[in-house]
Amino acid sequence: MKDNELWNTTTKLNHPEKIELLPGNSSLLQPIYHSAKFMPSEDYPLWDQFIYTRVSNPTIRQLEVTLADLQKKEDCIVVSSGIAAITTTFLSLLRQGDHIVTFRELYKPSRQFIREKLPLFGIEHTVLSLSSLDELENTLKKNTRLVHFESPANPHLQLADIEKIIEICHRKNVLVSMDGTFGGLHQHTRYAVDIMIQSLTKFANGHGDVTAGAIAASKEITKRIRETSLYLGASLDPQAGYLIQRGLKTYMLRYNKQTETAQEIVSFLRNHPRVKRVHYPEGELADKQMEDKGSILAFEIDPQVAPSADKFCYRLSLIQLTASVGSTESIICPTMTFFGQDLSPSDREALGINAFSLRLSVGLEDSSDLIRDLSSALDQTDSYDE
Ligand SMILES: *Cc1c(COP(=O)(O)O)cnc(C)c1O
What we know:
Blueprint: H1 9-14, H2 58-70, E1 75-79, H3 82-93, E2 99-103, H4 108-117, E3 124-128, H5 136-139, E4 144-150, H6 162-171, E5 175-179, E6 195-199, E7 213-217, H7 219-232, H8 238-249, H9 251-270, E8 275-279, H10 284-289, E9 296-301, H11 309-315, E10 320-321, E11 331-334, H12 335-340, H13 345-351, E12 357-361, H14 367-379
Parallel strand pairs: 2-3, 2-4, 4-5, 5-6, 10-11
Antiparallel strand pairs: 1-7, 6-7, 8-9, 9-12, 11-12
Bound molecules: pyridoxal-5'-phosphate (PLP).
């Protein structure tokens, strides 16, 4: 008689029979390991095994291995948001008395964390501009541990000269971390950035339903980061990990199609008399660094079009005003309201952020429908009725 035949109802309900596959019979897709706990086998060292999901989980590990391979790094750590990937990296690699260098062309929460929160831990910072990289070398001090940048930068897509940053930093033994979210996961892989950070919420997931982030680096660096990330506790739920893994199946298809549509929109906006400027990765550096120019663009409307970029967004019917990028739906936001509030007037001016600037992330809709939506909003003149 099996032990469980003696069990009473509530015991049985809490220890249901496990369905195991016969040897050689396997599922095409990996199952979602929706368990916070795993029982060890006596046959292997305890801590080589999966034990507790905050530390490691097979579904999350599969995603980490996929992402390390895609980004050509030795290993990868997946966490519960892009910003967790950034703060986990900083808090793991920096300590009291250290110095970090970054750039004003940066995702606002990253910039704010460096400016407002790292000083609370005794970590100093210097903020430069991507357009004056010549200052970088002299900014690196004895206690500089990390240089962090984005390319293309959120929201107006300035590009960093990646090779130059790496060359300067590595000559002085300073680690380089890059937030590559805007370019996607398949680009920039040939550059020797020490730490590649990605918000998986964007192109990797693609469908806008979960947040996640990734830190890809050498085994040595991921080991250091993991030691701290365990305590910060920003582990990703396996169900969310599965959705990211599923999103990745169509990653390249989406990226290519969205890029194609974005380029049609770039040329439509460039030729529109009521659009003052369009930001999109172009020129020598873009051609050198990016095989694909991506599906995010920014533009500035003529003040005649609407009282503000915010008002302009509410006129659109297909393109939605909201945060984030890289979704199957096209998304727009006024860059001043979303990203400009903490910047000095001169930084705003230099970055092209003002009351009339917008960021557009192109989705999978038909390009003619998107262009019709933009066109009708740009052509309206009866807007000053508030
Ligand atoms: C969105 C974004 C992040 C933050 O990612 P979340 O998943 O929203 O936390 C970080 N960097 C860049 C460049 C982003 O666009």
